[in-house]
Every structure is written in structure tokens, then in C-alpha cells.
Amino acid sequence: MATNKKTNNTNHDFKYYTKKFWRFFIYGIGAIVLFFLFASWGLFGSMPSFEDLENPDSNLATEVISSDGVVIGKYFQTNRSQLKYSDLPKNLVDALVATEDERFYEHSGIDGRGTLRAVLSLGTNGGASTLTQQLAKQLFHGEGSKFLPFRIVQKAKEWIIAIRLERQYTKNEILAMYCNVYDFGNYAVGVSSAAHTYFSKTPKELTIDESAILVGMFKNSGLYNPVRNPVGVKNRRNVVLAQMEKAKMISSAEKEKLQALPITLQFKLESHREGTATYFREYLRDYMKKWAETNKKPDGSDYDIYKDGLKIHTTIDSRMQLHAEEAVAAHMANLQEEFFIQSKTNKNAPFVNISEKETNRILMQAMKASNRWYVMQSMDKSEDEIIESFNKKTKMTVFTWKGEKDTIMTPMDSIRYYKHFLQAGLMAMEPQTGNIKAWVGGINYKYFQYDHVAQGARQVGSTFKPFVYATAIEQLNMSPCDSIIDAPFTIPVGRHHVTETWTPRNSNNTYLGMVTLKKALASSINTVSAKLIDKVGPEAVIKLTHKLGVKTDIPAQPSIALGAVDITVEEMVAAYSTFANQGVYNKPQFLSRIEDKSGVVIYEPIPESHDVLNKDIAFAVVKLLEGVVEGGSGSRLRSEYGGSGDNRWTGYPYKLTNPIAGKTGTTQNQSDGWFMGMVPNLVTGVWVGCEDRSARFKSITYGQGATAALPVWGYFMKLCYQDPNLKVSNKPFDRPANLSIKVDCYQPRKVKDTTAVIQDTDEFEF
């Protein structure tokens, strides 16, 4: 009996524990199910909604896109660009799958085999995160907490999100999203930005070894940064290549060949202050800030150009922009060399003929505008202490045309040094559309932020004279072939609001007698311009100039005929474009359209235009301007024989034989040099001068528009004509049918060396 009792007790104990086990098991499974349910319901923290999964907040950089489809810049807090799967190179996709998730195309967000392996090995044999899980982590909770309970909750949420992503997106879309959100360091987020930053390529252009480098960085972009750790990166790249061989994506021979390659970078940090079209991009940024104030999202919220991933399609042509920047850099470096040579004999360089008081005023103004002054003022330093600091030598990096240079000088000396630099502004525009094709606002945006295209208005000199001639042709029914006497001329007190007798003179005090209007403009004769404005009145000239798009408040004085008016490069180009466009003014246009991150057009500008002159008058002005290039100060565009200062005519001889209309301009004391050049489908304006008008060349040889500005235009046009894809016209300007104005004047026999005979006759100017 005792034995049976013992057996019964044993049977009871087994059933008891079996029942307890199953109860524990069921409760445990139930708890796990509830845990995942609670996590999915957001009880352990918010979970992404259906809409969030459809439109994850990817903090995309806004892209500035040229008319030929090139991304010329970005606005960002995080430099991230959106890619579609079709934009990814196959070698990068292969490398990513082989290295990060070999069963990516087989699982549904969670790799069961990998998870089991990780659990059994306690993580010592690698983790089990799939690409989808990694994407979930990147999009919705980042690296997460290191505290184990919180980490468990986050892991559960990561699994749930991964499953939802797999249901919501295709495998290809998940791959593209993952490649768009990873931070590769150096402000490069996403494969597109990384390819541009590290290799100066688009993703499609990446080679297998370059793709392997980027895929290797997915493990740890801080550790495997190719700029800082080339040895570690090479080892990691070779691991990726080995994985590709293991997955039979490349052969053993290919693997060995690729593993032997060195790490080769074309590293270029993307920033707001560097790259192409920097001045234009800054102008566009200011425009977009104002645009965002009046253009709202469908839900009424504001657009943010730094994170909404807008695509701003501009009229700028990236090829033409690069040609313009090359032309400005080449000529300004050449001309600057001459400026420094001449400054060596000037004790008050770069200033010419100004008093010590005026010099100190300029330098003090520059000090107070500097960042050093602002910083020290914020530190409650007195003005005397701040000024004293400007006279203490310190280490600094300065701009030179041969690259940045480390040196030691006082901040005051650096102010004088930078005042030496000649600045430039260039804008090119299609007259028929108003589309701006190139915009160079200065010589180097990092060091000189002032934009000399739209921001800086400067005195235009003789480039204003065509407005006077156009008014005379319209009001007086004159033609380019009509004659007028070049002789001393005076406008008395009281006439045209003159308060003192005004007697303009030609700069060399010589007069040619009877000349045609075409000859007068080609030689930029001051007395003829004065006589014409006397006949039509300053008000008529001002009215026409304003119709041509110039917004400057112009005084009703006859002296404006010689160009004593401040106008921007942008306005001058638009005004001249009216002549090339048969008398129709088109407002300069820099935007084609703006799209949201999904490619939906959210804004298209409405072009603005109006009639200014009839076709015949506009064509007559064009023929006048052609005379400047045929036998005036623009003739060096044709000549091959050189002349005074020809070593500073960058790109000379230009050998341009096609029809060109243009006008040089030089202001008093050579403070400003201009050239406005036109062919039928491109009008380009160039201004050159120092920031301060008292900093200038002493002589007209180098300070005149034909030496300072015209070479930029000639160099730029040579580059454009060498690029047939740009389709810049070399044809004649369209001649109106039944032209009522005589434009074909008698041409005397040309002297062979026109440049030698006519020293840039822009010196006749005011």
C-alpha cells in the first residue's frame, strides 16, 4: 500500500507540472502577443500611421536644377536627395544585398533564420537586422536606447514597422528608401549626395569598387570614412567585394582585380558657399524665402526649402554658367596681376587721388561691417579696444587667384588687401524669352558675398548712350546714316533744368566734324550724345529707359546722356535685350517651375513682357551697335593684331567673325568698365570695377571697358561657340520686312589694323 501511495503522489506531481508548464507557455505566448499588440497600438510610444508610411519625413534637401537637368546646388540642413530605384546602379544594389541582407528578396521584413541564429549564438555570430528593419530604425527611431528594457520595446516596434513597410512597398522601393536616408558623413545623406561628395559623380556613374566603398560605409560611416580612414575603408571595401563573390555577383578574378585597386576619391564638400552659380543660388534663396511667405502647402502650412525636398527648375544653363565662370576667373586673375603691379607705386593703394580723411572713412566703414567687429562688440568690448585689435598681427587665410594662402597680417592690412581686388558681374539672357542662362555675381562667393548682377548698381558710362540714340530715332525720325556735327557744344543755364552751363567735351579734346550717328556711337562721341538729348529732352530718354526695365531714379539732366546713372547688370541686360528682341521687353526670368518632392508642379511663373519700340527702330539701334564692333571700341573682337595693353586682353585674339552688336562703357576716372554684347539669341552684360570707386586703375589703358570687361565677353563667347550643344547663334539679326529706316550706310575702306588706329575710343566718354 505504501508503494502505491508513492506512485500516486508521483503521477500527481507530473500532471501538476505539465499543467503548470502549458499554463506558463500559453500565458507567455499571450503576453508576447499582447506586448506586440500594445506596441503596434502605440501604448509604448507613438507608431507611424498609414500616412507616415506613405510619406515618411525624410528631411530632403531642396535641389536647384538647371535648364539642362543638372543639379547645380542645394538648400539643406541635412544634405539628402531623393532617388528612385531606377536611379541606383545595379552594382550598388548587388553589393548592398550581398553584404547587409543576403535573403532580402525572400523574407517579409524579418529574417527568421537570421533571428534564430542570432538568438542561439547570443549575437556572437552577427545580428539579424534586415534591410527593412534598418530602414525602419533610420526612419522612425534612429539608433535607439542602450537601456535593455527600452531596447526590447524598440526592437519590437522595429519588427512591426518592418512588416508594415514590406506590405506597403515593393522590395525595390524599400531599397531606394534605405539608400536615401543613410548618413554618410560630411553633410552627405543618401547615396546621391554621397556619390557627389566623395566621387563627384551621379549614382549611375559609380564603378563597382566605388559602390563597394559606399556599401561598406553602411556598417559605420564614422569609422569607415574614406577621407579620414583610407586603410580601414579599403579593408571594408574588400569585405564587401568578397561578399559579392560569395553571392556569385562577381567572379573570383574580378574580386581580386577590384580588391587591388587603391581608394581614389574626387572629394568635394557640398556647401552653400562653394560650387557653381553661388551668387545666383544666394539670390534664389532670398527669393524662395519671400515666395514661401505667399505660397502655402495644401494644408496651409509653410514650405521649408531646407527640408521639404523641393525641386526648383531654373533657366540657368549649367554649361553656359561654367563657361561664364571660367571667363570671369581667367580674365580677372590676369587683370588683377596688372592692378597689383601698378599698386606698388601707390602709397595709398588701392585708392587713387583721395584724402587721408576719406581713406580713413572707407577703412572704418569696412571695419564696422566686418565679422570681427560684430563678434567683439557682442563681447562688450569698447570701440577703442576693437580698433586696437585690428592693428595686431594674427594668423589668417586669405584669398588669392592662385588659391587660399595662410599668412600673418593685421586685420586692417587684410581690409586694404581685399580692397585691391577687382570685382565683376556677368549676366547672359535669351532676349526672346527673358530666360537668364548665366549669372556670375562676383569673383569668389566665399570671400566676396556682394552680388554685382542684381544687388550692385554702378555707373554705366557710354553703355547708356544707345538709349539716347533710340529716343532720337523714335522722336526725330532719324536713322543711323543721318549726319550730325561733332563740335564743341554748350547747354545754357535754365535749359533742361541745368543750373550751371554745361559744355561736355571729348576726352582727347578733338572733334571729327560731320559724322553719321553710326560713326558717332562707334566712337562714343560725347558731344553728339549731348546734342541728341538736347533735341529730345532728358524726360523722353528717361521715359524710354524706364520702359526698358530700368528702375533707377534718373535725374532729368542732360548729363545722363554720358552715362552718369547707376544701373544694375541685370537691368542693363534686359534693356539691351529689347533691341535684340525687335523692340519687345521681356522681364528677366530665372525660374521655370517649382515641384514638390513627389514631382508635382506647385508653381509656374507668368512671364512679363511689353512693347517698347517698333521693330524698325529696334533694328536700327542694333545696326548702330554693330558699328561699335565693326570700327569702334569693340573692334578688337575682330582684330588679330593687338594694341596697347593687349597682354591683358584675356583670350585674345577672339577671332569672332559673326554679326555682333555691342557697346563698351567707361566711367569717370576708370572706376567702372562695361561691355554689353549681343548676338540674335543671347545678350550678355559684363561689369568690372573695385568695390570702392576710389580704388581703380590710374590710366584708361587698363581701366576702360574695352580692356576691363570686353575680354570676359569675348572669352565667354568663344567657349559658347566651341560648345555646339548650346546653339548660340552666329547668324545675322533678323531684318524686319519692309524696313522703313535707312541702316546700310556707306562704309569707307577699312584700315587693316583697326585696333592700332583706334585706341579704344571709349575714352571719348564722360
UniProtKB/TrEMBL annotation:
Pathway: Cell wall biogenesis; peptidoglycan biosynthesis. In the C-terminal section; belongs to the transpeptidase family. Residues 426-681 form the Penicillin-binding protein transpeptidase domain. It catalyses: Preferential cleavage: (Ac)2-L-Lys-D-Ala-|-D-Ala. Also transpeptidation of peptidyl-alanyl moieties that are N-acyl substituents of D-alanine; [GlcNAc-(1->4)-Mur2Ac(oyl-L-Ala-gamma-D-Glu-L-Lys-D-Ala-D-Ala)](n)-di-trans,octa-cis-undecaprenyl diphosphate + beta-D-GlcNAc-(1->4)-Mur2Ac(oyl-L-Ala-gamma-D-Glu-L-Lys-D-Ala-D-Ala)-di-trans,octa-cis-undecaprenyl diphosphate = [GlcNAc-(1->4)-Mur2Ac(oyl-L-Ala-gamma-D-Glu-L-Lys-D-Ala-D-Ala)](n+1)-di-trans,octa-cis-undecaprenyl diphosphate + di-trans,octa-cis-undecaprenyl diphosphate + H(+). The keyword Transmembrane helix applies. Pfam families: Transgly, Transpeptidase. InterPro entries: Beta-lactam/transpept-like (IPR012338), Glyco_trans_51 (IPR001264), Glycosyltr_51/Transpeptidase (IPR050396), Lysozyme-like_dom_sf (IPR023346), PBP_transglycosylase (IPR036950), PCN-bd_Tpept (IPR001460). Residues 70-245 form the Glycosyl transferase family domain. This is Transglycosylase domain-containing protein. Signal peptide: none annotated. PANTHER family: BINDING PROTEIN TRANSPEPTIDASE, PUTATIVE-RELATED, PENICILLIN-BINDING PROTEIN 1B. Gene3D superfamilies: Biosynthetic peptidoglycan transglycosylase-like, DD-peptidase/beta-lactamase superfamily. The chain crosses the membrane at residues 21-44. It is found in: Cell membrane. Keywords: Carboxypeptidase, Cell membrane, Cell shape, Cell wall biogenesis/degradation, Glycosyltransferase, Hydrolase, Membrane, Multifunctional enzyme, Peptidoglycan synthesis, Protease, Transferase, Transmembrane, Transmembrane helix.
